[in-house]
Amino acid sequence: MRALEHTPVIDLPDARVAVCGDWHGNTCWLRSLAPAIRNMSPDITTILQVGDWWMDLEFSDRVFKDAGIERVFVTLGNHEPWPHITPVLDAYPGEAIRVSERTWLLPRPYRLLIGQRQILSMGGATSVDRAWRKAGTEWWPDEAVTERHVESALAGGPADLMITHETPANTPVRAVRELLRTNPFGFPTEALVESAASRARITQVWDAVRPDLLLHGHMHVPGGGTTTDGRRVISLGQDEQQGHLAFLDLATLTIETPSLRQIRDASARGDHTRHLGWS
To answer: How far apart (Å, rounded) are the C-alpha atoms in residues 66 and 157?
Structure first.
């Protein structure tokens, strides 16, 4: 992986963007998703992707080009090819890196200005399944959200919108709270403790910059909720899951969430129907 372009500033005039949950390198899903975005919202040319990206760049460039998607900004997750990513990000500290014709990787943290909205990207998360993965080939310490990342994010001041991979602690999203409470996959206690510490770091930033809206992936349970002080959180589904795709209006920060069936129909038949979901 190499840097084709790098910049400390991204300022775009887009009025609307697509936000996508975890992709997990699923090329079959991307082949359906990209044309669905084009057919449902042909005005959208920018995707914000919330991590666990790990996509074949040559393939994704072709798919995005065919769909009219000009750029994808990746807020990195935990399951990423970190040995390839870290050296590129370290070569240009604090800068967004274009690693293919259409794909940009964002450092932690990074601030974008799109549609005159301040967007804070804060990637990373703890792999709660790492007990079942091999260190150095299936998970890497680079995934972690660190205190240095937090300090840097806090120094940037307020933001209108946060894009994270990790969920904040005390999330208002009921489905995420239930998943954390029940631990249905039986993750080890040590991993759960580290995961809680990761969520606490995201929350420290979330509470300080106080965005009106936060969108995240990682948990693989779609849903939305609002805190008592009016801040909204949306948990996006993973690839091929309900709640994976959201269309974001940057002027109003409202969200349209097509159903999984609508995505598949739009991909196959060019259906322009939309469904208003969490707002």
So the answer is: 38
Task: Output phi, psi for 35, to 5 deg.
Answer: -65, -30
∠ CA 145-78-19, rounded to 5°: 95
Helices (H), 78-216: 82-91, 147-155, 174-182, 189-209
Of 54, 86, 82, 78, which is closest to residue 219 (Cα–Cα)?
Answer: 78
pLDDT at position 202? 98
Give the DSSP letter of residue 201.
H
Alpha-carbon separation of residue 194 from 186, 201, 238 (angstroms): 15, 11, 22
- Distance, CA of 18 to CA of 69 (rounded, Å): 10
Say whether pLDDT at 274 is over 80. no
Instruction: For 119-177, write each residue's pLDDT tens digit.
Output: 999 999 999 998 899 888 888 999 999 999 999 999 999 999 999 999 999 999 999 99
Query: How many angstroms separate the CA atoms of 133 and 153, rounded?
Result: 30
Q: 213 pairs with which residues across the strands? A: 161, 232
Q: Which residue has the tokens 């990682």?
A: 218
Instruction: Compute the mean pLDDT over every residue in the chain, rounded to the nearest whole number.
Output: 94
For residues 159 and 149, give the distance between their C-alpha atoms in angstroms, rounded to a whole number. Answer: 16
Q: Provide the 3-class DSSP secondary structure of residue 228.
A: coil
pLDDT band at residue 279 under the 50/70/90 scheme: very low
Does residue 11 contact residue 71 with C-beta atoms inside 8 Å? no
